[in-house]
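Entry for the shared binder. Reason: the reviewer on the internal report wants the predicted structure included alongside the sequence.
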Amino acid sequence: MSESIHFSTKLIKETVAVDPQTGAANVPVYLSSTFHQKDFDHYGKYDYTRSGNPTREALEDAIAALEGGVRGFAFASGMAAISTAFLLLSAGDHAIVPKNVYGGTFRILTQVLGRFGIDHTFVDTTNLDEVEQAIRPNTKVIYVETPSNPTLAVTDIRAVVKLAKAHRCLTFVDNTFMTPVFQRPLELGADLVLHSATKFISGHSDVVAGLAVARTEELADKVYFLQNALGAVLGVQDSWLLLRGLKTLDVRIRKSADSAQRVAEFFTTQSEVRNVFYPGLSDHPGSKLHAEQAASGGAVLSFELEDEAAARTFVNHVQLPVFAVSLGAVESILSYPPKMSHAELNEEEREKAGIGSGLLRLSVGLEDAEDLIRDFSNALDFVRNHEKVTVRSVD
């Protein structure tokens, strides 16, 4: 097929591989830890599943093609992928990281990598001057989350890449929130793209996985060496499940994103909601930039109520979302970042990252948007009534 095809067609084309021997329309699950070698001196492509497995390879090839990279890698978790990426650095190296980075990434930087002499600086990556001022002679990586978790701040990928190249740094981009359906950082010049594939790519809250895609063969070789050496590879059965989830990614995330836009617009009209963080809203400070590098506001938004008490009341009275960690599933998931995804940060660090005590993050699933809005409206009624009772008791 020489002519260009739409992404939804490419996604199916890359994830459906007919088995040449049997004609099976699905990739076989190769549940084997080892592989017979027919020749004493010349080994076949596969020898041990930690080093390579046909089922995992089908998934890795698919994500590489969808992100526009040369090679993909499947890990046992998103943090396994992120940790492996940072282990490309050596003692004495320095990384620049968003100040509102995901709590797991914050933990590996502050509590693990420092013990091996790998330093970091937290900055507001939406402020290019601040990023540039943080660059040192030993800076090797600028790490980006865009939109960020959980405040949906938008970083200019192209501009960061330009800055990184000028200082001979690599650019790593966590693309979990957007997926290759809506944003492809490698096409914008990034060197490595990362996913917590547990989220949208899996889409069913039944797999824990991470993915990475490298832009160049040189970087891919380095990532593969670490993947094989550390051994944090994705299991074969989970690789198959993730490949299955990937097939429906396009239709799932587009439906969820459409609903998220409507939900975000609803929250902006509610007096109990102090702030709504969603790049699909025209008044979001990064909306114009986001539209230039991504095709949608995505399926995740955050909104801020008055305080923790209001957030508790809201959570206790919604009926449809699951209240849980994680995101990106067919079911809507409501979470409380101060005690969930960003619990690793202390109160001062959370405040600097813009994570207030009344902040809730919502990953919109496949429920009907009208039903979700009705549910949220009912919960806000309880918040409103609770506030009235509180004021009355103070009086």
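Summary line for the report: The chain has a mean pLDDT of 94.
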